[in-house]
Amino acid sequence: MAATDEMYQAVIIEHARSPRNYQPLAAPTHHCDGRNPLCGDEVSLDLVIDADSKITDVGFQGQGCAISKASVSMMTAAIKGKTIAEARELFDRFHALVTGEPTDEAALGKLVAFKGVAAYPMRVKCATMGWHVMKEALTENGERRTED
Amino acid sequence: MTAVAAVLRAEFPVLETLSRGRATVYLDSAATAQKPQVVIDAITRFYAHDYGTIHRGVYELSERATLAWDAAREEVARFLGAPSAEEIVFVRGTTEAINLIAESYLKPKITPGTTVLVTEMEHHANIVPWQLAGAKTVAIPIFDNGELDLAAAERLLANGPALLAVCHVSNALGTVNPVAELVRMAKRHGVPVLIDGAQAAPHLPIDVQALGCDFYCFSGHKVYGPTGIGALWVRGELLKAMPPYQGGGDMIDRVTFEHTTFARAPGRFEAGTPHIAGALGLGVALQWLQSLDRAAIHHDELELLAYGTGLLGEIPGLRLVGTAREKAGILTFVIDGVHPHDIASMLDGDGVCIRAGHHCTQPLHHRLGLQATARASLAMYSSRADLETLAHGLVRIQRMFN
Predict the structure, then answer these.
(1) Which of A4, A40, A123 is facing B372, going by the closest CB pair?
(2) Which H helix or E strand runs over A44?
(3) What is the mean pLDDT of residues A94-116?
(4) Is the pLDDT confidence value at A36 over 90?
């Protein structure tokens, strides 16, 4: 087994091949686009957030490597049904996980599959780009963001 | 491994190191080449025994450093077949060389309609500097196999661009461009020619006088020398007429608060204390390279390229990008269903170093309808075993994703 196989967990490859919530939403309340000019990765994220600050629907589209695509796919599954505060908390936990900082791994559920990324500093940005886009989409609370 | 490569490989100590716990398989020489012991030793010896600044000191160390600097310039002139070392400007690399020409040669001639003719396969370093200087870049199209459309080149040259700026060898496709023919065409239209030799210098013999071009540049680090040093050759009469690029020490003749006059070329273009050890290392690298049987090395590399082309061709779902008839040792490819970054990352686990991305050729990738590609590139130390490890890894990756 090659060293990097630790990073390419089966669940990651599966999500990269069949990403969840992979479509634009008809009426998003929040939106953000992200792009990494160095590698060409792109993510476009739509959210529907209700009056109780709960994320009721998520959709994304984009281009990128398996790590980035699977990371956004699994993120969308994880934040659906969560409040803005919970989604932000998840961001912090996930960020800690992929940068090798201590965190409550049990609270991350399936996302713990990304733990292997921490050993490859050059790939951390692939795993976190979609998450940064999500955090950005949440910054203007209750307002729809136009494209950056 | 061919006999030549086996002997040469021992000269490169980094190839003995491990990558991710595996033997290092270095296939990213088009990005940067590894360094032979002779270059590493020369730089160490220089700093340990002969180091001082150039031109200014009267003491012996400065004298030794100045002699080393001048000798390196002579070595570069020999390497390029330049008529005189006075026509060689030391720069940080190909990128700075092109910026220098854009700023000093082109910018004073810029009018609203000025265009620079490039090709669809150019590196960003041979596109952006012209745009920064205020010119519009127009590209000679390529065919799908990565060869230039010479009939289109002829038509576009007739439109009167201020300059033709073309790579000798494509960093992304490996295409060896027919630069001598392009120069002849350009001359018929009175268009000066710059050749970006970054990828050609490690692989091909260069003779700027035979080529008949006006500017030729390359980077030291791709030709087994240090980073941060490269060379620019400019035809003598053009160089003499060019204004300074940067101001500072070493490039002046006489300075007053009212008026400054400048040094002769090439010193006029070398402001500030330069990368002295880098130039020395480059000189040693070139001398070493020219002491080898380059024809035999080139022959072996073409054989290795053919071998690699065959190996990769057998991998299901893999498509080679860049299949020109004349190529240098560059194997660029995509695999169905696998992003190039994942290919590179997973190969890294096997100790295999390749490049993934747009290789600083976004317009080319746009032309090919690709976001990114994976690229394995060869150097004199590359072996069949390297390519077999690569192919073995690619088969594993292809299975994992499909």
Answers:
(1) A40
(2) strand A41-49
(3) 95
(4) no
In this predicted structure, the answer to whether residue A141 has a pLDDT above a threshold of 80 is: no
Given a contact cutoff of 8 angstroms between Cβ atoms, the answer to whether B97 and B106 are in contact is no
What is the number of residues in chain B?
A: 402
Active site residue B217: no
Task: Assess contact for B222 and B198: CB atoms under 8 A.
Answer: yes
Note the pLDDT of residue B6.
67
Identify whether the C-beta of residue B337 lies closer than 8 Å to the C-beta of residue B320.
no
Q: Write down the pTM of the prediction.
A: 0.93
DSSP state of B275: -
Instruction: Compute the distance between CA of residue B186 and CA of residue B194 in angstroms, rounded to an integer.
Output: 11
Which residue carries 């299975």 as its tokens? B399
ipTM: 0.87
Is the Cβ–Cβ distance between B210 and B180 less than 8 Å? yes
Task: Give the DSSP H/E element, type plus range, for residue B130.
Answer: helix B128-132
CA distance B377 to B185: 30
- Burial of B34-61, coded b for 16+ CB within 10 Å and e otherwise, reads bbbeebbebbeebeeebbbbbbeeeeee
- Taking the C-alpha atoms of residue B121 and residue B149, their distance in angstroms, rounded to an integer, is 12
In the chain, the amino acid numbered B342 is D
* Partner-chain contact A17 B401, CB within 8 Å: yes
**Opening angle at CA B48, ends B43 and B53, nearest 5:** 80
Burial of A143 (0-12, 13-18, 19+ CB in 10 A): exposed
Strands A41-49 and A30-36: antiparallel
Nearest to B393 by CA among A8, A25, A86: A8
Q: Which phi and psi angles does A59 have, rounded to 5°?
A: -145, 145
* Whether pLDDT at B2 is above 70: no
Beta bridge partners of B140: B119
Query: What's the rounded mean pLDDT across residues B92-98?
Result: 98
* From A2, A65, A67, residue closest to B349, measured CB to CB: A2
- The encoded tokens of residue A96 equal 């800690």
Of B306, B356, B321, B28, nearest to B175 by C-alpha is B321
pLDDT of B372: 94
Mutate to test the interface with A, among B342, B353, B362, B397 (most CBs of A within 10 A): B342
**In this structure, what token pair is assigned to residue B128?**
């952006």
Enumerate chain B positions whose Cβ falls within 8 A of a Cβ in A: 20-22, 337-342, 345-346, 348-350, 356-358, 371-372, 393, 396, 400-401
Q: How many CA atoms lie within 13 A of B49 on its CB side?
A: 7
Q: Residue B296 and residue B300: Cα distance in Å, rounded?
A: 6
